[in-house]
Amino acid sequence: MPYRFHLSSENDVKVIMAYVVDLICAMQAIFLLAFGGRVTADKVALALRAYEQPRKIVHLKVDAFDGRLGRDHVLDKVEELIWRYSIADHEIEETRRKISQVLPPGSL
């Protein structure tokens, strides 16, 4: 029997939505900073700082979302937010170049 869960309120859905989007966007930033090296506490802190402003926007959009529209609608919204507020594949190299120009040598 597959595991099933029931969310007790629209707010529960929104909390999970925001968590999933935050997790994926923050992890992407962490791996971007750690490319070719180790994940360190400094890199995690830097990635979280870089995601602070997009996080605020994501949370506002999740708060405004009508979670009662069904599972597929919720998943579509999560996917939309991830695509919109994460770094696109074609932007990764340019972002790495910009990061290396701002940070001290050897910090990545």
Please tell me about this protein's structure.
By secondary structure, the chain is an all-alpha fold. It has one domain (10-87). The protein has 5 helices and no strands. The model has no long low-confidence stretch (mean pLDDT 81). Keywords: Membrane, Transmembrane, Transmembrane helix. The chain crosses the membrane at residues 16-35.
Describe, in short, the structure shown.
This protein is mainly alpha-helical. Helices cover 68% and strands 0% of the residues. It has five helices and no strands.
How is the secondary structure organized here?
Layout lengths: L9 H24 L7 H10 L1 H13 L6 H15 L6 H11 L6
Helix pairs in contact: 1-2, 1-3, 1-4
Descriptive terms for the model:
108 residues, mainly alpha, 68% helix
Number of helices, counting only DSSP H or I runs of 4 residues or more: 5
| Share of β-strand residues | under 5%
Low-confidence stretches at least 5 residues in length (pLDDT < 50)?
none
Q: Give the helix proportion (percent range).
A: 55-70%
The sequence of SSEs as H and E is HHHHH
**C-alpha termini separation:** 46 Å
> Total strand count, please?
0
Number of domains: 1
The biggest beta sheet, please?
Answer: none
Any idea what the radius of gyration is? 16 Å
The overall pLDDT average reads: 81
Structural class designation: mainly alpha
Shape: elongated
